[in-house]
Structure formats: C-alpha cells, structure tokens
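Appendix B. One record, verbatim.
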Amino acid sequence: MKVQTLSCLLLCTLALALAARPDAGGLDAATVAVQELDRVMSLPGQPSYSSAFKQYSGYVTTDEYLGKALFYWFFEATDKPDEKPLVLWLNGGPGCSSVGFGQAQELGPYLVKKDLPELELNPYAWNQAANLLFLDSPAGVGFSYTNTSFEKDPPGDNSTAHGSYTFLVRWFQRFPQHKAKEFYIAGESYAGHYIPQLANVIVEENKKASKENYINFKGILIGNAYMDGDTDLLGIVDSAWHHAIISDKLYSTFYKSCNFSLVDLSPECNAALSQFTALYEIIDIYSLYTDRCELGYPDFNTSFSAQIGRTGGRLDFLKIPMGYDPCTQTYATEYFNRKDVQKALHANTTGVPHPYSLCRNSISNAWTDSDLTVVPVVKKLVDAGLRIWIFSGDTDARIPTTSTRYTLKKLGLPIKEDWSPWYHHKQVGGWTVVYDGLTFVTVRGAGHMVPSTQPEQALQLFKHFLANQNLPSKPF
C-alpha cells in the first residue's frame, strides 16, 4: 500500500508539474507524467555533442499472470518527429537483444565505443528518417524478463508474435501521440520469422480492433532473413562453395547426403554440417571478408552451439552475427552491464540474478515452436497489400543472398523490373528485383548485419523504403 501511495504521489506531482508544458502536444497531464517516468535524460558515456531528440526506455507488461514484461528503447526522429513514421526494429537469434545489437551496434543513434564502455553518435542513424522503437523480445531476452520458467512457459514463434502485439497495443496506449503515424516493422536474421508472424497478427487483429487499438500498419523491411528452412540451408551450401570456403568433396557430400526439406537430417548430412560449422572458429561466417575479433568474444552466460542443422524440427541460428569493428559485441556487453547505465535506462528494475547478455542460449534451447517456413505468411502479407522489402548483404554466408533468392522463388511472384544495379553515389550499391508486391535488394559488400558493414548504403535503402521509391538506377 505504501508503494502504491508513493507511486500515486509521484505521478500526481509530475502531472501538476508538466500540465502546462508547451511540448506536451495536447496530451493530458497524466499521460505526459507516465511518459516522463520513462524519459531518458542522459546516459553514462553519452557524447556531449548529442542531438536534442528525445529518448525513452522502460518496461511494458505483456502478461500479468506469467509475470512477463518487455523492455523497449525509443528514439524520436532527429528532425520533425511528428511528421515521421514509426519503425519497430527486431533482432533475431532467437534470443538476441534488439537493444544490444540493433541500437548499440547497427542503426541506433548511439553506438558503443571502441575499447571503452561508452557511446558515440552514429552519423548514419536511422532516426534521421523515422522514429525508432527497439524491442527486446520475447520475454527473457536482453533486459526483458519473465517470472515463469521456460519449462512451464516455453518461448516460440507464436507466443513471441502475440507477446509483441500486446506490447505494441499497450505501448501505443502509453504514447498515444504516435498511434496515428505510419507504422513499419524492420529487422534481420531470425526476425525473418518474427516480422512476418507479428505482421500477420497485426493484420488479423486490425480487422476486429477498436479504434483505440487499431495500428496504422503499412509494411515490413527484413535483412538477411531466415524464412525457409529448406532453401536457407541449400543456399548456405551453394554460397559456401561459390565463395570458396568449402571443398569440392564436402560440396558433393551435401548433395549426396542432404535432403533439407526433411525435419530429421541423415547422420551423413549432419556430419557434413559439422565440417561446415568448424569454419566459425577461423573466419567470420557473417561477413566473409572482414576480420574476426582478436580480443575474443564475451561470455554470454552460456555456451553457444555452432550447429546449423535442425534440432527439434527447427534451425539453430545461435552463432551471433559480428559487428564491424568485429569486437563491438564485447563493447556492448560491457556497457549494458554497467549499473549506472541500467539505472539511466530504467532497466533491470527487478534485479535479475544473471548478468546482462546480448543473447541467451537458454531461450533457444527451450524454443518449441518454429515454423520451418514463413513463405505462406509472406504471400498472405503480399496479398494484403503491405509494402514488403527484403534486403541482403551479399558477403553473409550465414543467411546468404543465394538462400534468399531461392526462398523468393517459392513465392512465385511476377517480376515487374528484373535484376538491375542500384547506385550509391557513383558506385554500384547492389542489385534489385521488383516483384509484383515485393522488392528485393542486395547490398554489395555487406555482411549479415548490413547497417554495421555498409551503414551509409543501409540508411539510403531505409529512406527509399519509407518513401516507397526505387533505389537510384544511375550514378548521382
């Protein structure tokens, strides 16, 4: 009772203090007060020359009975945020943090700094073009938490999609000024599952949602997406041979012994996959032509499996994509384990017993629900008229461009504009195919985490996606 009384007094005090604020945007005082509880005023190690955009972070409860709460970090656009769309970014794993990867190592305004647990401004941050919302999902990832064991409530594709939808509905209730904005979902890797599945839930729920809960959903953008178990593995093998990282003999063994359309692979095929995964120890499979981190990688509170065969009817995607500088995941782990950082972000408020980790193997090990393909879901979203762009860094050997091209063929979409180069200033930025209902873009020289390896090109792609404009077909 005392805690509740104290919370009420705090909210009332904030409401009175903020009621006349000129930047409240017509919101009632109570709503502004609740938002201010999540306001991030400054961060340890934040550069002194930071821009004036607002940022918020905190928790949204998604299941009171199971004790689930998802952690978010939101950044307003750098310029005219009221006129910009809202974009939700999701990293994959399953079990990896969108805050720790997407925000801190790829496309967020604040990147972790080399050799120091501090931050630096990202000159190619995507909040130059949109309001950005990073979400640690499902519960248990990053700073998100659950009070129920994975044995009693195992994570999976379906529960993740519905949990993220509940988060969005409740987040919009907390920040109603963003509800009318055009809303998009973007992400990479296993978000090739997360995004179509969440998009499908939004489309279905919007059909029956009240005006208050309707989401102004417009489209999806997915990079190096794991979408189809069969074509993804086939593409990995073909790409590995074409990039000269496996032998003719091993390549032949794959084709003789592997039927990737099966749930259970043969012992010979699994043995061949083990030979492939040995490459993880000597090269960066996520960006073939960049160096590995010589400092070593952080202890993620668990050992990561290098297997990419099926386990329990799914693909194991837990080897973590590296940032470039290849040691950024080490810097990010150090930064988010700082107690002053967690306090500034309103994170780890329940005092979880384990250190912050970019990814949690226990989540993937408990994963019981993973569709072998989301191709039918993507086709449904195409038919629903959503804007859909798929992009692919072409030096990624984990979800290579070859895999994505095989997967897109399964959709059977008519081609409107066939394979052609697009330009980044004077140079070819990659290639693109415009299908009827979907645009596919490659990013030349980019690895699995495109915003890390080719940040300027990634921002260009993002801006054209939001504007629904084809990328430049000529040098400029």
